[in-house]
Amino acid sequence: MLDAERFLSEIEPFKYLDSKDIKNLAYSLLVDYRKKGEVIFEHGSKPLDFLYILRKGGVVLEKGGEVLEYLHEGESFGFVSLMTSEPPTSTAKTVEDSVLFLLNKKLFNQLLSKSEPFREFYVRKLARRLQEAKRTKTHEQYTSLVLEDINLRPLIVLDWSESVDKAVKEMVSKDSTFILVRLKDGLGIVTERDVLKKVIAKGLNPLEVRLEEVASYPLVSIESSSQLYDAILLMAKHGIRKLLVTKGGTPVGILEDRDIIAYESKNAVVLIKEIDKARTVEDLRYIYNLVRGQTIDLVLQGTDPERLSAYISELNDRFMKRAVYLAMSRLGEEPLVPFSIMVLGSEGRREQSLKTDQDNALIYEDYPMLDFNPKEYFQRFSEVYIDVLLEIGFPPCPGKVMVSNPFWRRSSHEWEMAIKSWIEKPQPENMLNVAIFFDFRNVFGDQTLVDRLWYHILQRLKENPGFFPFLALDAVRFKPPLGFFKDFVVERSGEHRGELDIKKGGIFPLTQGVRALSLEHGIGERSTFKRIEELQKLGVFSKEYGKDLSEAYRFLMGLRLRVQAEKIRDGKEADNYVNPNNLSKAEKGMLKDVFRLIREFQDMLYERYSLHVFG
Fold first, then answer.
1. What is the tens place of the pLDDT at every residue in 245-256?
2. Number of CB atoms found within 10 A of residue 571's CB
3. Which CATH topology does 1-133 take?
4. 556: buried, middle or exposed (CB in 10 Å: 19+, 13-18, 0-12)?
5. Could you give the CA distance from residue 445 to residue 403 in angstroms, rounded to a whole number?
6. CATH 1.20.120 applies to domain 468-613
7. What confidence tens digit (pLDDT) does each residue in 472-500 have?
8. For residue 69, which of 159, 288, 597, 607 sits 20 to 30 Å off, Cα-Cα?
9. CATH superfamily to which 147-264 belongs
10. Crossing angle, helix 116-128 and helix 268-277, to 10 degrees?
């Protein structure tokens, strides 16, 4: 099997394995010879037992008479069925006499567990398979996307006579993996891999090698009026990763396979499935990074901030749920009592921004048991659980509001006692805890525990009406950054000079004030938007005033998300600061109107709760 050994060492993802593994693998392969037109497996047949590797010939994947993908020498197929243990979602058929290598399922799974590059290769392939998206309602919208509506990668073009050295510098400065070359007969392309294989590996001097010597030609092109699905088939047919997109024959951009992955993965149903099936932290980390990048794209495309924040929260919930199973697997032990992991703050309200960290807590039922100590178990579990979240990519909470902190991990009775103390003694430290905790919701575990705790809070509040002014104080602690002459009040020095804190002066007063009013009226909703709706129904807000508050909050959320996305895109850290000089005239006017509305809202809270007595 020397041929198999050499062959595997040259194709993805097997070339990432060490030589010993490749040698052992080569001797484990079965060889299958197929005539042209033979069916290898059929759509809907029993789950596959082998990964098929095309050694020679050609294979197509079909469904309903429609060709989904052309496969060439060195490509593998059947992995979707192997990884999901489900029947094949397409029919595989040879289009010419072919030789196949067959890798059994057991060895395939061993390689998935052992080799991160091997696993990542097939996870990526699985994530971008159209058949996953095809099962969802949004498939037609996805496949019918027109290329001219997609953000294509811009063209970077150099003349054929320029040096490879100049091309590399241009690629680095433009953060690109390729560059187009203007040849005598049209456009060619030079990629990072071309530079490595054709120049560096041969010991050539990049300053002395001209682009025409290493450029690939001709480029496969497609018109911008074509659908994304057509582009996918064209790339599969030619076995390429980049397509030149033209408009009336004139080049307008480049479509890469990773752009297609991004568009397919915007389907929340597909992503949720992938998260729920993830077996390792590495799998979750890959999906988490993918979600992060696509969320930024959605923000910059102007997606409604309320829906987008709910989308971010839903995916975060899924990550946190899956992390529970991974943590328990590491511990090798499950709890014998009901418990719940709760999310707090903006995550509890489902109003996440791109500046995220962990805000979570844990509640458990403390049954007296002879052979199980809940307190000791959940201490160990919480430490492992937070480690898993950190490994996935969730940043730690600077204030240590995490289940690994005993303060935020209590039995049901201990939580009730703590909340009773916070409400009866509204000291600054207790009010800070209230501000952090009182938007909690269950993300994993026993919903009854959380409902019971929420009922306990509402009962304590009914017994302590004098608590509400203290709750409302948070909403008036920071004034909107608007001066006497209606100019923005910005930072005068430091790293945020010329900027204003949109959270402190806008979002925080609104969320805290609406929460105080909602709790006073026994409203169980956590979302600021839904709380405003309920307050409208109860007559606390007029319909018009409630609408104004909702639109103001929507504007603030959208502005913060957009500015954060722009900062992340530019390689900066996301924060809550906005530079008014970077806003359009209309946005500046809207922001001033919003700040004036919040100031009026604070005045109303002052009157309602007689806050002037606090000085």
1. 999 889 999 988
2. 7
3. Jelly Rolls (2.60.120)
4. buried
5. 14
6. yes
7. 999 999 999 998 767 899 999 999 999 99
8. 288
9. CBS-domain (3.10.580.10)
10. 150
